[in-house]
Design a protein that fits this description.
Elements lengths: L1 E4 L2 H15 L3 H19 L8 E5 L1 H4 L8 E6 L10 H18 L2 E7 L6 E6 L5 E6 L2 H14 L3 H16 L12 H13 L26 H18 L9 H8 L4 E5 L2 E5 L7 H5 L10 H14 L6 E4 L4
């Protein structure tokens, strides 16, 4: 089957409306900052956790979060040794934290997941209505988040692509690692892959930005050191590619994400992504969506259209219209 996009201008208008709805504003940023302080205050009330520091990471730090996004926070315990603290100690610290959250009444729907690869507590902040994921000494997560922050400074299309792809993944129910599907970090890597394979490339290979081992368990995270490496390497990439900036529009990049025949391994399944736009896209593009201000109901409409299409399908694609 061949799907045709007759006007990228319509797709552009739709994307802009969606982004304007899901992108956070200053109030959203403040709410997350207050929720972090709320967690810090709870920690200070626990004798076993005194001296710990609270470090946000994930999409909030990378500036890749949507209004409805979760808040990832690492509670960093001080250690005098050069040996990472044990998983059992992390579990015990989270149990103490769970008790403090419940005593202070700041959280609801508290769920302790001790046997995950990275033990976490998940809860919803009562005051700020934000879903929070709390882990202990999650230095790899902090490093990855900081690297993504700097990648996001290379080209603004990266951040927009991440938000759009996350929104699509939610509509397909494939953005839930607890159920064996893709986490947000994996989706970001797919977007990076897409932008690395443009001609000319929008993003360089990750090893040219930071060549350290981001997955290694560490006992210390030097944010300043990571920043210095990323800034120097990104500056070099931008100098080397001066005058060769990829001019592809965001709508075409979004389409190309689904046409690169990405192979994603997850939960013992192989998803082949090779369709640029899905079944029903013409109905979406030709709707009256662009004639009225977008709101939550319209975001649900986008998800409903995506849901009809299935997560991944093979198709040929012919793209029409101006860039």
């Amino acid at each position: 089957m061949v799907f045709r996009v007759h006007s990228f201008e319509l797709l552009k208008a739709c994307i802009e409306d969606i982004l304007s709805t899901i992108k956070p504003g200053e109030d959203d940023q403040k709410k997350r900052s207050y929720a972090i302080q709320e967690l810090a205050d709870s920690i200070y009330s626990v004798g076993a956790l005194r001296g710990a520091t609270v470090k946000p990471f994930g999409s909030f730090v990378s500036n890749l979060y949507a209004k409805s996004g979760d808040l990832d926070v690492s509670v960093d315990l001080w250690s005098s040794s050069r040996i990472p603290i044990s998983k059992k100690k992390k579990q015990n610290a989270l149990r103490e934290l769970r008790r403090a959250l419940q005593i202070r009444g700041v959280a609801r729907s508290v769920e302790f997941i001790p046997n995950a690869r990275v033990p976490i507590i998940q809860y919803m902040s009562n005051q700020f209505d934000i879903s929070c994921d709390i882990s202990i000494n999650n230095y790899p997560g902090q490093i990855k988040s900081r690297i993504f922050y700097w990648i996001n400074t290379i080209d603004e299309r990266f951040g927009d692509m991440v938000l759009l792809v996350k929104e699509w993944a939610k509509s397909q129910n494939i953005n839930d690692p607890k159920n064996g599907t893709l986490n947000s970090y994996s989706l970001c890597l797919l977007v990076i892959f897409c932008l690395q394979n443009c001609e000319p490339a929008i993003l360089p290979p990750l090893k040219e930005i930071y060549d350290g081992n981001v997955a290694e368990e560490t006992v210390f995270y030097d944010e300043k050191h990571v920043d210095e490496i990323c800034v120097a390497n990104i500056s070099r990439f931008l100098r080397q590619n001066m005058g060769q900036r990829n001019q592809t529009s965001l709508p075409r990049l979004f389409a190309s994400f689904f046409s690169q025949k990405l192979t994603v391994w997850g939960s013992c399944l192989v998803y082949h992504v090779s369709s640029a736009i899905y079944t029903g896209i013409n109905n979406w593009l030709m709707s009256d969506w662009f004639r009225t201000p977008v709101h939550d109901a319209q975001v649900k409409k986008l998800r409903a259209v995506f849901r009809q299409l299935g997560p991944f399908k093979y198709s040929d694609i012919h793209l029409y219209g101006p860039v």
